[in-house]
Design brief:
The complex is a heterodimer of chains A (476) and B (442). By secondary structure, chain A is of the alpha/beta class. Chain A is built from 16 helices and 12 strands. In chain A, helix 5 packs across helix 11, helix 6 packs across helix 7 and helix 12 runs parallel beside helix 14. The chains are: A alpha/beta (476), B alpha/beta (442).
């Protein structure tokens, strides 16, 4: 088939997409034993071939610009184009990370002010902008907790408590930090069971990792009591802020007693997801932990900005200073908001999620009772729909021109569909989506082969993922 | 809901629509809804500047951009100024790539998936390695993950690294392993390259792996065969950390038997951007595929037997294995990897050969110029790709400061009188002449 032919299959010997000014051959400068021996098997295409190839590839994607993308916990909100244009200004893109601070005052000022704004928005002493992604931020948080306990000569704290609704990255991160993961069961209401938590807390607890709102889309009502219990046990409270879009402008987690928080700037702060990255997983710390944040940080020195390294810092978590271009876009976003409009983001995200939940309650009920926050977790009513799987519903949505929700997560919900519309979608889109869900429900009832056979209108049909893993073909 | 000043443009519901939705939810107003979702939230106060319109923002950010100075740059040190063909950004700024997410629904993400498969293939071809993942955060974190893998495979805790490893990579390794019991021992690079005798001596201990940086942080091209032979003889794993662009001219990690090969992918079509976003290249031999961290794309068949691309081998990953996963990484640097794939596809083998030759030629010209300057010396008589160390007549910090006053980024201060300078294909002979002349004025 032509549409998914690889570039290498379109390659014609002798073609090329760019010519550089002429130079002597490499062999003039290097001895044979230093030189590459065989030519790399890269495609040979003209510039036009390359543009057409990748443009056509792009058209095989569903994206936020082209489709509703209700992927729960991923906060697929509109990415304002002004930020792309501004972050693309030459003076920003050409800045070398080792250039003298006097050459990069604009970028440093952006970083400094973004950090100050995030600290104010979340009620923390200080943020680091260095981590490249959410999981990287979690890792940073775990290292900070370790540094804190090491500083207290408290080596016995080797456990991390994680609720069973947590993102997979939480337990994976704790394990990477050499800590033992203690999973605790959520209550029937989908929230942390305070008594369960208290039973697990003790002199071995280093950290409790919570997502707020949690992955059931619910606010942890007992968050203040949780923080008190965690602190009473001598442990620290980490908040996974992947779902901060529900709280922005409404609450300051630092004021609840959260010690460490990571935010995904590519979620709440509107920087594009890019097909899976780059993002930024900034981490905030409370007053007694700020000194442990990764270094260096940007400080203001009179009128100028410079880097400074706290001797207590856990050190660098990556080369250079963070994903500066992503930070710049997030800076643009925060400057386009004030206290009132930040609050409107959360309010409208909550309104949209509850509207979907309400519209679908007769056919795909919410798994947990009560008002949800920015996302709702729905399930399949086994009484109404026998033998139909969430996977089929998700694939059928693609046929109706919608990306699918996050499915089979959180793990504690059978046949889970986690739907996050975000504040940037409007009622007319949500109505079309819920209408499609209703039609799919009817299909599942009357012609179940249809969803089971979906998708039929996407570029490829349903993919056999199991055989792909059995005999991996990972390259040409 | 009140209409307030500020940025309403990213909230798509009209006030009428909001009212209709609230009515459908039996809520009088939005506060009722929020109170029901998050009861007992204490009131908060924020001290924030007023919101800007796009008109105001645009002017404001342009003012900030003007505070960055455009300079004549001769600094490399792990982040390189290269020419980026216009076609690269033209592709990666397309909304279909830019605003998609992780290709969880493969049938609706074939564009991103195929592009990543092509990225993996181009990287494998370039590195001459069996397998590449979909990319990591950056070069330093990719190296840290390779070290994790090697330590686990060998079940040993010592890893040998060259003294001439990028200082940020060293720091990142230290941060990652501060509490994990992994011990890093440095191999001397006193004469520029890795001291083979010192390496052999330290390999007598119980090392899990050796990190070979090529070119190393001093720009020196290492004696890869001698190093590899010593590592293999001791039964340790070889982790190569390379500049991917240099592989158009230099020996490939595959050719000297690297078990893992990583690198900073920035030189492949990604702008400097003050340090990020970049991408970490992560490759390994086939036998270590289960130790591979992060995403990887494979070819599969769809229901009709047609070719399709899909995230595969996910049983290693955090969303399945949770605390037993190979790594906690969830994302990849997909858009940066796309830049790299488009860049390599545009260049092809011929363009790659040319750009490498031009880097070698310009850096050599710079070396010739500097070696004629009074008081300046070329520090190591070793082969290099596009950067090398010079010994200045006075402290490098002082030289950098003097050059800064002339809007020139002179290089990276290695301490004392040692300065690491770089010339890529972006430099003209005139610029190199001007740089050398300014340097000579010190």
């Amino acid at each position: 088939m032509e549409f998914n032919k690889l570039s290498i299959e379109k390659s014609v010997s002798g073609k090329r997409g760019i010519k550089f000014p002429s130079a002597q051959k490499a062999s003039k400068y290097l001895k044979t034993s230093s030189l590459r021996q065989k030519t790399p098997n890269l495609p040979q295409m003209s510039e036009f071939d390359v543009i057409r190839h990748f443009t056509n590839l792009s058209r095989l994607n569903y994206s936020l610009d082209t489709h509703f993308y209700p992927l729960g916990s991923c906060t697929m909100k509109y990415n304002p184009r002004a930020y792309e244009a501004l972050a693309g200004l030459d003076n920003f893109t050409a800045a070398h990370p080792f250039a003298d601070a006097s050459f990069a005052q604009g970028t440093l000022e952006v970083m400094y002010n973004l950090e100050r704004t995030l600290s104010e928005l979340c009620g923390f002493e200080e943020f680091t902008l260095q981590p490249a992604a959410g999981a990287h931020g979690e890792w940073t948080g775990v290292l900070i907790a370790k540094a804190f306990h090491a500083d207290n000569k408290d080596a016995a704290r080797t456990e991390v408590i994680v609720p069973d609704t947590a993102h997979g990255t939480n337990p994976a991160t704790a394990n990477m930090g050499g800590l033992n993961v203690i999973n605790i069961k959520s209550g029937a209401d989908g929230c942390v069971d305070l008594e369960e938590l208290k039973k697990s807390l003790g002199p071995k607890t280093a950290l409790v990792m919570l997502t707020v709102p949690n992955t059931a889309g619910l606010f942890e009502k007992n968050i203040k009591k949780i923080a008190e219990a965690v602190h009473a046990a001598g442990a620290l409270l980490y908040m996974d802020g992947a779902n901060f879009n529900a709280l922005i402008g409404l609450a300051k987690p630092g004021e609840w007693g959260v010690d460490i928080l990571h935010l995904n700037l590519h979620k709440t702060f509107s920087t594009p997801h890019g097909g899976g990255g780059p993002g930024a997983g900034v981490v905030g710390a409370s007053k007694n932990l700020a000194k442990f944040l990764p270094g260096p940080k940007v400080v203001k020195d009179g009128k100028n900005f410079k880097f400074e390294y706290d001797k207590n810092s856990i050190g660098r978590v990556k080369a250079f200073y963070g994903n500066a271009a992503v930070l710049l876009k997030a800076y643009c976003y925060v400057r386009q908001h004030d206290a009132d409009t930040f609050k409107e983001i959360a309010e409208n995200a909550v309104l949209n999620a509850n509207y979907i939940k309400e519209k679908l309650k007769e056919i795909f009920p919410a798994y947990f009772d009560g008002t949800c926050m920015h996302e709702c977790v729905l399930t399949i009513d086994k009484e109404k729909l026998r033998g139909v799987r969430t996977l089929d519903i998700a694939k059928r949505l693609l046929d109706y021109g919608f990306y699918a929700p996050t499915i089979y997560f959180p793990l504690i919900v059978p046949e889970a569909m986690m739907i996050e519309p975000t504040e940037t979608e409007s009622k007319d889109v949500l109505d079309k989506f819920t209408e499609a869900m209703k039609q799919i429900f009817m299909e599942a009832l009357q012609t179940p082969a249809l969803p089971a056979d979906a998708p039929q209108r996407s570029p490829v049909r349903r993919i056999d993922e199991v055989s792909a893993a059995r005999e991996p073909n990972l390259r040409w | 809901m009140d209409v307030k000043k500020g940025s309403k443009m990213f909230i798509s519901n009209s006030d009428t629509q909001k009212k209709e939705m609230l009515a459908a939810l039996n809520c009088k107003n939005i506060s009722d809804l929020i109170n029901s979702a998050a009861p007992g939230l204490p009131p908060v106060k924020f001290s924030l500047p007023p919101a800007m319109t796009e008109v105001e923002l645009s002017a404001h950010v342009k003012t900030l951009a003007a505070k960055n100075k455009k300079v004549l740059n001769f600094c490399g040190a792990g982040a390189y100024e290269h020419f980026i063909p216009a076609a690269v950004n033209s592709i990666s700024s397309r909304g279909e790539f830019l605003t998609a997410y992780t290709p969880y629904q493969a049938e609706a993400s074939q564009g991103t998936l195929q592009a990543i498969y092509e990225y993996q293939s181009c990287v494998c071809a370039l590195f001459d390695m069996d397998i590449s993942n979909a990319s990591h955060y950056d070069g330093a974190t990719a190296l840290a993950e390779a070290v994790i893998a090697a330590v686990k495979i060998k079940n040993k805790n010592t890893v040998l690294i060259p003294a001439a490893l990028h200082p940020h990579y060293k720091e990142t390794l230290n941060t990652y392993y501060k509490y994990a019991g992994v011990k890093f021992e440095e191999i001397s690079c006193a004469s520029g390259g890795m001291d083979i005798a010192d390496l052999k001596n330290k390999l007598k201990g119980d090392a899990a792996a050796v990190v070979l940086a090529n070119p190393n942080f001093y720009g020196v091209i290492e004696d890869v065969d001698a190093i590899s032979a010593a590592v293999k003889e001791a039964g340790a794993l070889l982790i190569a950390a390379v500049n991917p662009l240099s592989l158009g001219a230099l020996r490939t990690p595959g050719s000297y038997g690297a078990d893992f090969a990583v690198g900073e992918g920035q030189p492949l079509g990604n702008a400097l951007n003050f340090g990020g976003p970049y991408l970490g290249i992560f490759t390994c031999k086939k036998e270590f595929v289960r130790s591979l961290p992060g995403r990887v794309v494979g070819i599969a068949k769809d229901k009709d037997g047609g070719r399709a691309y899909v995230l595969t081998l996910q049983a290693r990953e955090q969303h399945i294995r949770r605390e037993r996963s190979a790594s906690n990484i969830c994302s990849n640097q997909a858009l940066c990897a796309l830049n790299a794939a488009v860049y390599l596809t545009l260049l092809g083998p011929k363009g790659l050969e040319e750009v490498c030759a031009l880097n070698l030629e310009n850096a050599d010209y710079l070396k010739e110029k500097i070696s004629k300057l009074k008081g300046f010396k070329i520090k190591y008589g070793r082969e290099f790709f596009n950067e090398f160390v010079i010994e200045c007549p006075k402290p490098a910090a002082e030289i950098i400061k003097n050059m800064t006053a002339k809007n020139i980024a002179a290089g990276f201060d290695l301490g004392g009188k040692d300065l690491l300078v770089c010339a890529t294909e972006t430099k003209t002979k005139t610029e190199i002449d001007a740089f050398a002349a300014a340097l000579g004025g010190n």
